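Open question from group meeting: does this chain pack into something compact, or does most of it stay loose? Before anyone orders reagents, we agreed to write out a predicted structure and look at it together. Recording both the input and the output here so the notebook holds the full record.
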Amino acid sequence: SKSIDRFKDLEPLNDLERLLDESLVEDPPISVKEGGIFKKGFNETLDQYKEASTNGKQWIAELQLKERERTGVKSLKVSFNKVFGYYIEITKANLNHIDTDALGYQRKQTLSNAERFITEELKEKESIILGAEDKAIELEYQLFLDLRQEVKAYTEKLQAQAKLLSEIDCLQSFAEIAQKYHYTRPIFSEDKTLSLKSSRHPVVERVMDHNDYVPNDCYLDKEGFIYLITGPNMSGKSTYMRQIAIISIMAQMGAYVPADYAQLPIFDQIFTRIGAADDLVSGKSTFMVEMLEAEKAMVGATEDSLIIFDEIGRGTSTFDGLALAQSMIEYVHHHTKAKTLFSTHYHELTHLDETLSGLKNIHVAAQEYQGELIFLHKVKEGAVDQSYGIHVAKLTDLPDEIIERAHTILQELESHTKVEKEDKYEQPSFQLFEEQGQSEIEKKLKSIDLMNITPIEALSKLHELQKQLK
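Structure tokens returned:
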């Protein structure tokens, strides 16, 4: 309502509109120093100059006809250039038939195949025409400067109108898309609840057939504020996370949102790490950029923030990445308590819901059918039960030999892992710690206070322990 009251300040500025309408031609030239800017009737002196110039040019056209009749030379021309001004041009072939002196012609320039002449009368008209043109151009520029000065007095009013009109344009656009694409009015929660029913990504659904787009729900509150998202590549994990962030931004902008129902907290900040763009200019690797962006979230986020992390930790070794991902999730859970969407390929992390009460496993569903992978794009509760990396690879043009070999290797790895699990108590060589008492490594691991350590510190300690093991 405050904005609507402010729109009463809109002024039509009729006097400025009238001034511009009466002064400027419909399609003025780009240059302001070559004339042709002002309408006829705006300035009497300018009109006189233009009339003198126009009449002079008409006189030139009539002179050409008159001189053709006087000389009998049909090809005679009266022309103009910036160096010589106006002149009469006759080809040398026709000069033998006329007496130029008797006609009052004064030679001005000789060309290879023609002669150019001037007469006293033509000199006089040239002075009038060119003088009028120069004066008109000079006067138009001065009139333009005066007009600009008058318009300058309206600067503050114009800026205020532009700001109001831009707000109206923005709100009108909000209203149009809300109606056109069936958006809903969001409500804001005081208990920090985020509840979305059949939410969509406003951009992705526009580039797809509307009937093919799969909407999804999301529910986070004070008790359950972390979603750990698993699922194959291309299943829609990133799109799902992005749409939660975009809907949050749209709601706080004052727009309706793409969902059947939307209840949202007021977020103070949104932290994201999506994609793997290297900062090559400053020499930072993907992993370093990832860690720097993660650091901003870990240090800067509050209970009122939203964190979107896509595949954190994949830029380093498996164990390092897994350890970092878990330590970040635990840190958010115990300290920050920000609403968090965390997608991962580390299926080992899905067991965190057993120890972290605020974490919930969800997955973007996919089904295997006759050896093919079908993406359902539907977010469901629980962790995904298997990885589909090789199935996704099959969707590309990779040679069949590579896909088949990958299947074989996967089966060998899975069977080897199974044997290791069955025999781990019979094979002391695989044990991490010494059987006789605690090792130094074990003592140091147990001494780390995981509840009060940052991800960067965790990485440093892991690196130190790894060096000792080597």
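Observations to bring back to the group:
Confidence is low (pLDDT under 50) at residues 424-436.
The chain is about 45% helix and 15% strand.
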